[in-house]
Amino acid sequence: RHLTLPPNKTSSAKLLTLLKKWSVSESSLWDKGQASGAIYHGGSDLIDFLSKVYGLFCVSNPMHPELFPYVRKMEGEVVSMLIDIFHGDSNCCCGTISSGGTESILLSSKAYRDRGRDLYNITEPEIVAPTTI
Questions:
Q1: What is the sign, positive or negative, of the torsion defined by CA atoms of 84, 90, 93, 95?
Q2: Phi, psi (degrees; rounded to nearest 5) at 22
Q3: Cα separations (Å) of 35 from 28, 102, 103, 105?
Q4: What b/e string do you get for 37-58 counting C-beta neighbours within 10 Å, with b at 16 or more?
Q5: Mean pLDDT of all residues in 97-124
Q6: Are residues 29 and 35 in contact, defined by beta-carbon separation less than 8 angstroms?
Q7: Cα separation of 83 and 45, whole Å?
Q8: How far apart are CA 98 and CA 108, in angstroms?
Q9: Are 109 and 127 in contact (CB under 8 A)?
Q10: pLDDT for 14-70, tens place per residue?
Q11: What is the CB-side half-sphere exposure of residue 21 using CA atoms within 13 A?
Q12: What pTM does this model have?
């Protein structure tokens, strides 16, 4: 357990060995189907391909399209494909890609908040949530 930065750096080889061990340990659970709806993948070939793609763009930041125009291009094309798949009107439909999880929930909440304001003049929206949130 590491609660503070170590006084000396850990070698890349040692760190990679540890991370591989953790990865094998975690994947041994979900890879055998012991996860319900939490893991979506297309097999080891796709995982290997996606790892290579990630390596090409891991330092990119879509918030800076002047530096990363192809990241913006890919996002726009994926959004257009999804609009087409869901038979949306490309003249009025739009979207963005998020990293998932909490970010996606917050972005969708903001989209519905804005829609309520624009279409129904809702100026004080509320979220109904359990006390455990």
A1: positive
A2: -65, -40
A3: 11, 20, 22, 21
A4: eeeeeeeeeeeeeeeeeeeeee
A5: 92
A6: yes
A7: 28
A8: 10
A9: yes
A10: 999 999 999 988 887 777 777 777 777 788 899 999 999 999 999 999 889 999 999
A11: 6
A12: 0.70
